[in-house]
Amino acid sequence: MNFKDLQLNKPILRAVAEAGYDNPTLVQEKTIPRVLDKEDVIVSAQTGTGKTAAFALPILQMLFDKQDAAKSGKKTRALIVSPTRELAIQIEENFKKYAVYTNLRSMVVFGGTSIEPQKDLLAKGVDVLIATPGRLLDLHKQEIVNLDFVETLVLDEADLMLDMGFIDDVKKIERLCPADKQTLLFSATMPHKVKDLAGSILKDPQFIEVSPTSSVAKNVGQVLFYVPKPQKMELCLHLMRNTIKGNIIIFRRTKFGVAKLEKTLKKNGFKVDSIHGDKPQSERQLAMAKFKKGEINVLVATDVAARGIDIKDLDSVVNFDLPNVPETYVHRIGRTGRAGELGIAYSFCSPDEKAYLATIQKLINTHITVEEDHPYPLDPKAKPEVHKKQGSKHKKGRKSEASKKKKKRWY
Ligand code: AMP
Fold it and tell me: Would the CB of 211 count as within 6 Å of ligand 1?
């Protein structure tokens, strides 16, 4: 199929051609006609499938058709709700790119930054508003945002939105928009709570499934290293010096782990930055910008901070810690090997993570190839380390035999 077959206007087709897209991706092929027909849709697709353009292009098309009517004081007619700030920024970049030959205006609002500049820009009026839930409700409460004219509402990464506890906010936002709007729900996974949400707010939705979460992109190589937990850092350094090249994202489960790894990599001369939930928004954006510009080539991240982020030319993903939710593995490694490129995912598994590995392998229905040839192999029979509680320093009997003997000698 060709983009021209999708009934898109010339200015949009021109922008798409300039973005370097030859043909629509599967999710675009299936979703765009439905959206243009004003149907509600539930789309099960991961990032990397081209899902942003699958809603951005038809929305721009629909707005473009009516854009002259709104010359005086633009009204927000499309609202995109995204769970994370990074993703919201990225969606807006997409809208700007595709709308470059139109007069349509888009804007992104999110928390963690000053609200005043956002108010000023909003006062000028925008056609497409991209927002995180909290800041959107805040701006609405202050009567800066008017949702009365929303024709299309998009809930992106709905599963993450619910995981992050935004269910009430999302329902509230939906109620603030007109009842006859079109709603598009995108989600990487389809757990019951997402289906329930869809059932309660969508009208006769069309269900579009592109690639189930369990299917790992074919152009991503996967390698597994069994390694004792204390030696993961050494293995990481070893691989980064000898094997892993190019642009790399390293995932860790905790913010603390991210900070620690970042510090070690910096000490060892790598150009690295990090994103995690405890970092101020400005620093997270700066890290992303540096990575995109090539000033650094290593980004260490937690899952929530990194979810949905689209980074071009990503060569490798390192799972320094295996995720405890198997779907997360699929999301993480889906960040490399995007849009036809080749990528590799390296995963470290210590004895305490073997159960996680089992659920991941079950989900993807594959045994990940094990690389045994490395300097920190794990004894196959190794059991998870049990950390014995250290006794209190103030309790009796903490002295070693040697020190007791020494005392006797002194007398
Ligand atoms: P997304 O799933 O929206 O995060 O998109 C993943 C990547 O695919 C982004 O870098 C897009 O710019 C790119 N992309 C989207 N649509 C196409 C297309 N039709 N052809 C090639 N690349 C695309």
Answer: no
Q: What is the pLDDT of residues 225-253, one digit of tens each?
A: 999 999 999 999 999 999 998 899 999 99
Q: How far is the CA of 128 from the centre of ligand 1 (A)?
A: 20
- For the Cβ of 25 lying below 6 angstroms from any atom of ligand 1, the answer is yes
Residue 207 phi/psi, 5° resolution?
A: -100, 120
The CATH number of residue 247's host domain is 3.40.50.300
Instruction: Determine whether the shortest distance from the Cβ of 51 to ligand 1 is under 6 A.
Output: yes
Same domain (yes/no): 11, 149: yes
pLDDT in tens, 68-89: 554 557 899 999 999 999 899 9
pTM above 0.90, yes or no: no
SS (H, E, C) 228-277: CHHHHHHHHHHHHHHCCCCCEEEECCCHHHHHHHHHHHHHCCCCEEEECC
Domain with 276 in it: 220-370
The finding on whether 97 has its CB within 6 A of some atom of ligand 1 is: no
Nearest CA to ligand 1 atom 9: 50
